[in-house]
């Protein structure tokens, strides 16, 4: 097997490992909503960590055997592999809109990465490393705060946290490349801060990606993470490592077009998740039978008298017995008795199981009613 073919196979296996890790993470987030970032006691979460680590290791080995222009676009196939794997292994089927958005994001990202030209191996100086680490930390914290503020909108919150995770992973790749270049001339103690930054960013990216799957499904956060990670690394490569787009102005225009396509795919995935959340039926409250319904006779085929219906109602307190008047069809046409003590008159009648609240009747002999 040639080196190019080996790099392609390793890249595909790496994408499958990343997809498997994302599926396990989403299942852990759904089954443990109270543990937002790191469910350390869940063995399945550690399986997801292992799958993501395996994917990263295979990606690095693939870069050692094949060119960056081939390996990086193949890494964008993670979301394409994740959707059918989720339907096959966990029964989570994606809709047409989700598939369309995933394909758009993958094609746009693959085209964008394929147009980024390689450059000679370069390293960042101390001032550049401090600047990149500071800007990255500020961006990640700002996105975390925004995600916390958007807790009532799970899809928006997921996209914000997945973006923060992608930035953290992308910048950890930048520092990894910098340390790798430095180690070609020998290992030194000056690389320890960079190694610490790599560990912090990689851990933050893993925890934020876990949090992004809570209540947001699989497709939207995974696609966001898959797109933002290499784009953030490519942005640093273009601005600080001297990397450019191939084919001059035409390549730059094509790269921007690919970026628009990838962004459109992410928007489709986000709106599809929001629409799905809005159409979910709300759980109905449990209904308990009332006392009146429990005491009604089982045979309701025939007509019921008022006494039968009123038997199950609670006793009315505070109403004098002589103030109750039986209501019939001619109640409006006859004179109502006038209690001697001046208390109001109450009417009662068949209520068909409803709660009985007596209403006072105005004394027509003592109050003047003007039209």
Largest sheet: 3 strands, mixed
Order of helices and strands: HHHHHHHHHHHHEEE
Number of helices: 12
Report how far apart the termini are: 102 Å
Strand order of the largest sheet: 1-2-3
> Structural class, from helix and strand content?
mainly alpha
| Total beta strand runs | 3
Q: Ranges with pLDDT <50 over ≥5 residues? A: none
What does this structure look like?
- The protein is built from twelve helices and three strands; from the N terminus they run ααααααααααααβββ.
- It is mostly helical.
- A three-stranded mixed β-sheet has the order 1-2-3, with no helix packed on it.
- α1 packs antiparallel against α2 (43-65).
- The mean pLDDT is 75.
Break the fold down into its secondary structure elements and pairings.
Elements (H helix, E strand, L loop, with lengths): L2 H29 L11 H23 L2 H8 L2 H12 L6 H19 L11 H24 L4 H30 L8 H21 L6 H22 L7 H32 L11 H5 L10 H5 L13 E3 L18 E4 L11 E2 L10
Parallel strand pairs: 1-2
Antiparallel strand pairs: 2-3
Helix pairs in contact: 1-2, 1-3, 1-4, 3-5, 4-5, 4-9, 5-9, 5-10, 6-7, 7-8, 7-9, 7-10, 9-10
What labels would you give this structure?
371 residues; mainly alpha
């Amino acid at each position: 097997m040639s080196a190019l073919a080996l790099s392609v196979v390793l890249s595909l296996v790496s994408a499958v490992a990343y997809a498997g890790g994302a599926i396990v993470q989403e299942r852990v987030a759904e089954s443990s909503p109270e543990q937002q970032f790191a469910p350390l006691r869940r063995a399945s979460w550690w399986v997801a960590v292992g799958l993501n680590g395996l994917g990263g290791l295979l990606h690095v080995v693939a870069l050692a055997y094949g060119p960056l222009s081939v390996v990086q676009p193949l890494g964008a196939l993670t979301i394409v592999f994740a959707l059918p794997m989720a339907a096959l292994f966990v029964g989570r089927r994606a809709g047409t809109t989700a598939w369309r958005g995933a394909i758009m994001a993958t094609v746009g990202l693959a085209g964008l990465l394929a147009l980024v030209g390689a450059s000679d191996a370069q390293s960042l100086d101390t001032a550049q490393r401090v600047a990149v680490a500071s800007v990255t930390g500020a961006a990640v914290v700002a996105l975390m705060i925004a995600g916390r503020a958007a807790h009532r909108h799970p899809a928006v919150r997921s996209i914000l946290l997945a973006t923060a995770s992608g930035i953290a992973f992308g910048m950890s790749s930048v520092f990894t490349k910098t340390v790798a270049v430095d180690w070609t001339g020998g290992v030194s103690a000056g690389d320890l801060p960079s190694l610490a930054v790599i560990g912090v960013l990689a851990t933050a990216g893993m925890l934020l990606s876990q949090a992004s799957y809570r209540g947001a499904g699989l497709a939207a956060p995974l696609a966001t993470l898959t797109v933002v990670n290499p784009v953030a690394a490519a942005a640093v490569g273009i601005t600080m490592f001297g990397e450019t787009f191939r084919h001059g102005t035409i390549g730059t225009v094509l790269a921007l077009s690919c970026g628009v396509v990838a962004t459109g795919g992410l928007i489709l995935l986000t709106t599809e998740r929001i629409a799905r959340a809005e159409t979910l039926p709300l759980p109905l409250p449990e209904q308990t039978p009332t006392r009146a319904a429990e005491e009604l006779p089982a045979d309701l085929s025939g007509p019921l008298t008022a006494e039968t219906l009123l038997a199950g109602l609670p006793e009315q307190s505070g109403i004098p017995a002589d103030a109750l008047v039986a209501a019939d069809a001619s109640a409006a046409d006859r004179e109502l008795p006038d209690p001697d003590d001046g208390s109001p008159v109450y009417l009662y009648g068949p209520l068909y199981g409803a709660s009985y609240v007596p209403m006072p009747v105005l004394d027509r002999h003592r109050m003047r009613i003007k039209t």
